[in-house]
């Protein structure tokens, strides 16, 4: 169209791509609604802030996931079981693409510290993974996102915990982190349903988050005292450990 600015350089001027850094921003689109933009090499990606990131409404639904979940629910109502419900390779492919779009957005939302959106998108991604693992017609499609599940669950936990911590609910945040770590450790068991790559990297990130949450807590908070006690015992600093036990005993009396 003559007169319409189509050169991306006019949009990206002053917003350089930095390798290794996730750079995101919010803008107001032509429809007067907020959009999320993420800077990538040679351009940018743009997402809607809710619904499907690309703005599409497959089968009239907010997500393709919603459509297939409704199909599954209808099947269960008619057959009193999910037995016989299958996703074709093409349906699994399209669900994986939707998971990819949600991934791009929840990473951007994490950078923007919009943790409620991170929780929403990671929860949807986990539902996509579980749906394919349970109902894909082929083994290849059932296993395609199995290893990715650990990462998404870690991001889901981070979103939940950071949202709670931002509200001053630090003990709740710690509980969420501990539950996330326990879930990841379970995936490393020998159970046939949980075979996949080790979750040590994801567990490490949650351990780091746990330490960060503890740092934000008041010095006399019970979880912080318990963590310091564990450190004192590990270091064989029994004098410090005794004092910390006294403080904990005083708090429980």
Number of strands: 3
Secondary-structure-derived class: mainly alpha
Spatially, the strands of the biggest sheet line up as: 1-2-3
The total domain count is 2
Shape: globular
Give your account of this protein's structure:
This protein is mostly helical and 253 residues long. The protein folds into 2 domains: 49-221, no CATH class; 222-253. The protein is built from 10 helices and 3 strands, in the order αβββααααααααα. The protein has helices at residues 8-12, 64-79, 89-111, 115-135, 139-143, 148-166, 170-187, 200-216, 222-234, 238-252, and strands spanning 23-28, 34-40, 43-48. The chain has a 3-stranded antiparallel β-sheet with strand order 1-2-3. Helix 6 (148-166) packs antiparallel against helix 7 (170-187). The radius of gyration is 23 Å and the shape is globular. The model has no long low-confidence stretch (mean pLDDT 88).
